[in-house]
Amino acid sequence: MENLVDFFAIAEKLECEYRLTRMSDGAQQSVASHSWNMTVMAIVLRPYLTHPVNMERVMKMCALHDLPEAITHDVPLHEQTSDVRAKKHAQESVAVSQITNLLHNDDICNVLDEYEERKSREARLVKAIDVLDTAVQHLCAADLKYVSEYDNNFYWKLFFSDKMATGFDFEPVLRGVFDEIRRRVSMRMKNELGIDSSIFMGK
User: Fold this and answer.
1) Can you give the residue range of the structural domain that contains 37?
2) For 105, which of 53, 186, 199, 203 is 20 to 30 Å away at the CA?
3) Would you say 49 and 173 are in contact if contact means Cβ atoms under 8 Å apart?
4) What is the average pLDDT across 98-103?
């Protein structure tokens, strides 16, 4: 019982860990909120998928994929140099071991490894939904100005890149939803910020 309570106390920290993305009320998005949004997206998208997936596995990955950040903390993408990513990966490996040893539950470790390896269709789907949730926040954020503040429009260049878009091509519904989000974000950028999104297309 002590170990279970210790784990629940660790997992609670995801509610206090905040991402760069902003919500419709202007607040920063918590990692826990991000994971919850992904789980809801997975449930709603399932009937539209062209290939079957193990939905229990998908939902586990959605809920647990950022669990190590309860210990290591989130690192914004624009700060992730190769050295920072290597350090982040090492720290998260230690965090996974800490959590696994606490629970003696290999399934959690296996789910996290599967997500990182991106080999299964379930893992690819969850990664796409991970990115899709960030895209939704670009649409829903109360104020988009913050997105332009980092490294000479780093996030807009990424969001409108061919690389970003093609990451959804393995499932038509994912690409369709992403394209519709980008269309609406483009309209917001033009109307609210006076920015023509075409300058970032295909970068």
Assistant:
1) 2-200
2) 53
3) yes
4) 85
Q: How far is CA 147 from CA 103, 124, 134, 158, in A?
A: 39, 26, 11, 11
The pLDDT value recorded for residue 202 is 67
Token representation of residue 138: 């670009």
Query: What is the DSSP-derived secondary structure letter of residue 198?
Result: G
Question: Could you tell me the CA-to-CA distances from 193 to 26, 64, 72, 146, 200 in Å, in that order?
Answer: 16, 36, 35, 11, 14
Cα(96)–Cα(75) distance, rounded to whole angstroms? 17
| CA-wise closest residue to 129 among 13, 50, 36, 20 | 36
Section 96-114 average pLDDT = 87
- Condensed to tens digits (0 to 9), the pLDDT of residues 168-199 reads 999 999 999 999 999 999 999 999 999 999 99
48-85 residue pLDDT tens: 999 999 999 999 999 999 999 999 988 888 888 889 88
Three-state DSSP class for 16? coil
Residue 177 belongs to domain with CATH number: 1.10.3210.10
Question: At 76, is the secondary structure helix, strand, or coil?
Answer: coil
- CA contacts within 13 A on the Cβ side of 86: 3
> Exposed, middle or buried: residue 8 (CB in 10 Å: 0-12, 13-18, 19+)?
exposed
